[in-house]
Amino acid sequence: MRAALQAAYGDIADLDELARRLADRDHSGNIARIIAGATLDELRS
Q1: Angstrom distances, CA of residue 16 to CA of 1, 6, 44
Q2: Distance of CA 9 to the CA centre of its chain
Q3: How far is the CA of 37 from the CAs of 9, 17, 34, in angstroms?
C-alpha cells in the first residue's frame, strides 16, 4: 500500500499512517481507488 501511495502521490506527510489505515480497511479496494485516481482527500475520508 505504501509503495502504491508513494508512486501515485509522492512523499506525503502522513504516508505511513495512511498506508496502514487503508491496508487495514480494504486493501484491494483501496489499491483500485488509487489506480482509478482517487484524491488524497477521498482516501483520507
Answers
A1: 9, 10, 12
A2: 9
A3: 10, 19, 5
The 3-class secondary structure across the chain, one letter per residue, is CHHHHHHHHCCCCCHHHHHHHHHHHHHHHHHHHHHHCCCHHHHHC
Give tens-digit pLDDT for 1-45: 999 999 999 999 999 999 999 999 999 999 999 999 999 999 999
Q: Whole-structure pTM over 0.70, yes or no?
A: yes
Domain count, the chain: 1
Cβ(34)–Cβ(42) under 8 Å?
Answer: no
